[in-house]
Amino acid sequence: MEKFSNVNELVNTLKPVKPIYCIRPSAIKNAIKFFKEKFPGKILYAVKTNPNEYVLKNIINNGIDRFDVASIDEVKTIKKLSHKSKLFFMHPIKSRDDISEAYFSYNVRDFSLDTKDELLKILESTNNAKDLNLFVRVAVSNEHAELDLSRKFGAISGEAIGLVRLCKQHAKKLGISFHVGSQCMHKISFSKSLKEISNIIKKTKIIPDTINVGGGFPSIYPDLRPEPLENYINEIKLGLGHLKLEKLPEIICEPGRALVAESGSTIVKVNLRKKNKLYINDGTYGSLFDAGVPNFILPSKLITNGRVQSKKITAFQFYGPTCDSLDFMKGPFLLPNNVKEGDYIELGQLGAYGLTFRTKFNGFYSNTIVELNDKPIMSLYDNAGKINYLVA
């Protein structure tokens, strides 16, 4: 992998025709440092967020040895890179074949579920193993999340109570988990969810061995500026205190976006300008899915190569390179008004899902990946691993 000190050096050296994806290892290091210092428990990286092997190696090298996996292929990927890592199969709905292979071939013992049918499937697929750690996923409000996960997964309170009692009979260790939704913009979601867990504990009189507070920890975008992540951690600690247990269970979390979003960006080239519409060489079928489908506004920066930037800032929309009209990113993306054909633009916060969703639709695809040593366009973390809003 080629390495460059900054974006300008990259563009001046390569003069790329196709999009280039950039990875900043220092951003991964800073985010992990924060969670390891602040979170009151163990950290699982949600592999789905960015399964690139170079990213995973950086995560492993920075001390993460537990992973939230959702498929047998993710299991294999992690075990290939770090056979000692502990894997948690936290997808609540899995195929029998995947359960069996994960258990018997890769020593996976931790499984999530939200129905009795899934529990029976896990038991049957592992030959009624006695060393299973079973997590009951409880449905909680996702009202403050940009992406709602509650409609697809989670047992409502009454169902969860029965599942907790049933899993207690079959599990070596019992866990209760929840997820506040992706890019959660209010810390109160965590304490409200822990209150729901408290009610289940009181009604069942069963104290879980592990409480999984899930993911949902946000990153920063031009229109989505969460309060400091430390406030989220403090809210979790407050909620755990309200459980009023003599001894707290083991606490785990599953950050994805918050660990890697800042580490990735894409360099795109302008193919054509129509007034405030820019036609660029990457799009929603490439690394810019988040900008097109959930309509995230990505931080953007014009790379001028010494050309004077206009002081007038214009709100642009983007169109990707394919012939599909769905390949559209509404924005607004704020750039100098004198942007033109042939210019390069850096789009940030693509360490989360940027590589994950790429396709080869219409023949537009680039797998050029480089390492950068400069700072991301926007950041929640400074070099000490503390919270700080940075804008490059």
Structure characterization notes:
With 392 residues, the chain is of the alpha/beta class. It has two domains: 3-22 and 262-391, Lyase, Ornithine Decarboxylase, Chain A, domain 1, CATH 2.40.37; 25-260, Alanine racemase (TIM Barrel, Alpha-Beta Barrel), CATH 3.20.20. Helix content is 29%, strand content 25%. It is built from eleven helices and 22 strands. Strands 1, 2, 14, 15, 16, 17, 18, 19 and 20 form a nine-stranded mixed sheet that branches. A nine-stranded parallel sheet has the order 3-13-12-10-8-7-6-5-4, covered by helices on one side. α4 runs parallel beside α5 (96-106), α7 crosses α8 (188-204) and α8 (188-204) packs parallel to α9 (229-241). Mean pLDDT is 94; it is low at 383-392.
CATH homologous superfamily caption of the largest domain:
Alanine racemase
Q: Which spans of ≥5 residues are poorly predicted at pLDDT below 50?
A: 383-392
Query: Distance between termini?
Result: 24 Å
Global structural class: alpha/beta
Major sheet summary line = 9 strands, mixed
The CATH topology label of the largest domain is: TIM Barrel
Number of domains: 2
Range of strand content: 15-25%
Number of helices: 11
By CATH reckoning, the class of the largest domain would read Alpha Beta
Computed Rg? 22 Å
Tell me the number of strands: 22
Nearest-integer average pLDDT: 94
The appropriate CATH architecture of the largest domain is: Alpha-Beta Barrel
